[in-house]
Amino acid sequence: MFINYPHYLIPKLCGAMSFLFNPMFIYLLLSDMKLHLGSYRHLLVSFSIFNMLCSFYDGLVPMGVHDHRYAFVIFVSEGIFSNFSQLGQLALSIRCGFITVTYAILHAHFIYLVLNRSMLIQKYFMPYGFILTFVYCFLHMMLWTAVCDFFFYGDLERKTYIYDSFKELYNLKLFDFNMVIAIYWEGSNEAVIRSFIGVVVVSASSTYSMGLFFVLGHKIMKNLKAHCKDPSTPTTTLQSSHSADSRSDMCQFDAMYGCLVWSSLSSGLCAIYLAATIAASGFPCIDPVAIIIFLPCLRKRLYLTSPSGMSSTTAPPNSLFKIT
């Protein structure tokens, strides 16, 4: 189904840029031996791979959003999973799970930066810590996937509740679509209770993620002040890059989550919902750009030539970067 040109074109453009910027970022990480990142290099590479996977899955399962009175809806707008099936329903739930994996990966980054001086991290992160990071991210995804599948499942009752408004807006029969639906009122006790349980679970997950960011961020800044007096040093620069990185993800996540859940308790905000679904496709291409911009040793390698005629493949001596 066609909603409008921004909804159709912007996610595809962001996906294309993701497959341009993330391989570039991986190349810069792996080819520059002046970046003494240790095991942290693997985390950064895995983050970029996840970004591309997220963009691919966003193209495979494009999301649309609808609301009606006391319900909000996420549905597959086009593609091979647009027609209703159990497999398509599961694919949509997994797509919702991708949203929270972004935070799980950032958790892993921040935890590594807090504990990177520990001998335990330096000795056992590869492969045990890396495997644990993967399991942690997978559990985050499965939590939201399970919530969408068990508590927000678009059954006949919920689809019937929003049928008229969906038909009026899109002139299509919603029974043919894969949907996750939360209904807060004007439904059966079972549907309303299940919806509220789902909202409580994802709200608790989001609150935990936010709280962990504040705690770890405070710890990182405290460590920086204790070990580094110069704000222009490479370590401080890395923290700035991750600060910008996390802020961009938090803004996009909050736009998606806040608009889809809490705003629908009071009124219909279709334009904001639409903007949120578009924003959700933007972070895979924004993340690598944010890190490249804030790390001078990576940023300078993008220049074709420097004033002194230095090749773009060679970083200047003062760009040496090390995490110890």
TrEMBL record:
Pfam families: 7TM_GPCR_Srj
Domain of life according to the entry: Eukaryota
Keywords attached to this entry: Membrane, Transmembrane, Transmembrane helix
InterPro entries reported for this sequence: 7TM_GPCR_serpentine_rcpt_Srj
Keyword set includes DNA damage: no
Bilayer-crossing regions: 6-30, 42-60, 92-115, 127-153, 195-216, 255-275
Name of the molecule in the record: Uncharacterized protein
